[in-house]
Write a structure and sequence with these properties.
This protein is α/β, with parallel strands linked by helices. It is built from eleven helices and 15 strands. α1 runs parallel beside α3, α2 packs antiparallel against α3 and α4 runs parallel beside α5. The strands form four sheets. The protein has an eight-stranded parallel β-sheet. A three-stranded antiparallel β-sheet has the order 3-14-13, covered by helices on one side.
């Protein structure tokens, strides 16, 4: 896990925010994010008012997905405030119910990971795997009770290792495993998960609806992140299509503040699984507007207009 991560914020009318949270591993570079945010802001300044069609115009601009998601989020929060509507109502979504998020434990020495998992107050633990210690760690988890486990492999297993690890995943009653292999082996997932209740969720490589259409016959579900899909409009399209196809829908996040996870939370009525621990991984969350009660996540009653940055992080310019 990185000690420092640079995210960018966009603010419209001095109070409506979006957050651009790239990936340390996958990018894009901070300078690209900043440049595209500036292009998007210039486009928004050229318009007389923020309207729903402007969200659709942002979708087709030549922007990286991280910056696009932030620009659309800020525009959605502006629409929410000006129309006095909850953000999810703009998209005819049901209110997000009280949802339960997983909490991530990163790759480390197995003994350290077991201690961290056992001591964690969170009942749903997402465990990062992907090295030579995977088998030993899963064996050691037998001693832990009162936890539900989810596994995130980030493409690190081969099909052969995935098949071998299924014994341990089944024994621990793991409900989902994210991206056990790379896309080149996804067509084997149906065989690998045969006679198992573990759901194979696609994450890496699942960005847009066309990606979903390419792989949907071979997977159990999708992990949708705003930074990958390019914002809430495309995220909703993917989620609705997956629900129609009776696949599981997971909403995830980057390491980001409440501003960043807010659009995914607005889609809560479309989700089955949630990984919204990004703000919990920060030394100090920069924003307010979303409530965390251990694993339970909900929105404040005054979420119209979206989350706000705390005073000490706001600039007066």
């Amino acid at each position: 896990m990185a000690d420092i991560k640079r995210n960018h914020f966009i603010c419209l009318d001095g109070q409506y925010y979006g957050e651009a949270a790239g990936s340390v591993a996958y990018g894009p570079d901070s300078s690209i994010i900043k440049g595209d945010l500036e292009s998007g802001c210039e486009f928004l300044r050229s318009r007389d008012a923020i309207t729903f069609p402007i969200l659709e115009e942002l979708e087709v601009m030549s922007l990286n997905s991280v910056s696009r998601a932030a620009l659309i989020a800020a525009a959605v929060h502006t629409l929410s405030a000006r129309n006095r509507r909850f953000p999810w109502e703009i998209f005819d979504l049901e209110p997000p119910r009280m949802i339960s998020t997983s909490f991530t434990v990163s790759l480390d020495d197995p003994e350290n990971m077991v201690r961290e998992i056992a001591a964690s107050p969170y009942p749903i633990i997402k465990i990062k795997l992907g090295n030579e210690n995977d088998e030993n760690l899963l064996k050691a988890l037998d001693i832990i009770s009162g936890k539900r486990f989810r596994i995130d492999v980030n493409e690190a297993w081969t099909a052969e290792k995935t098949e071998r690890m299924m014994h341990y995943l089944n024994r621990l009653e793991v409900d989902i495993v994210e991206q056990p292999t790379g896309p080149e082996s996804i067509r084997e997932w149906k065989y690998l998960r045969k006679r198992s209740s573990v759901k194979f969720i696609m994450d890496e490589g699942l960005n847009r609806l066309e990606d979903y259409e390419k792989y949907c016959d071979f997977i159990d579900g999708v992990n949708i992140k705003m930074a990958k899909s390019g914002g809430i409009l495309e995220a909703i399209r993917i989620a609705r299509r997956a629900k129609k196809d009776k696949l599981a829908v997971m909403f995830g996040c980057m390491v980001e503040s409440q501003v960043g996870i807010a659009p995914a939370l607005y889609c809560g009525s479309l989700g089955d699984y949630f990984d919204f621990d990004g703000p919990l991984l920060l030394a100090d969350d920069m924003a307010t507007g979303i409530k965390f009660n251990v694993e339970k996540v909900s929105v404040d009653e005054d979420i119209i207009g979206g989350p706000r940055l705390k005073d000490k992080y706001r600039k007066d310019d």
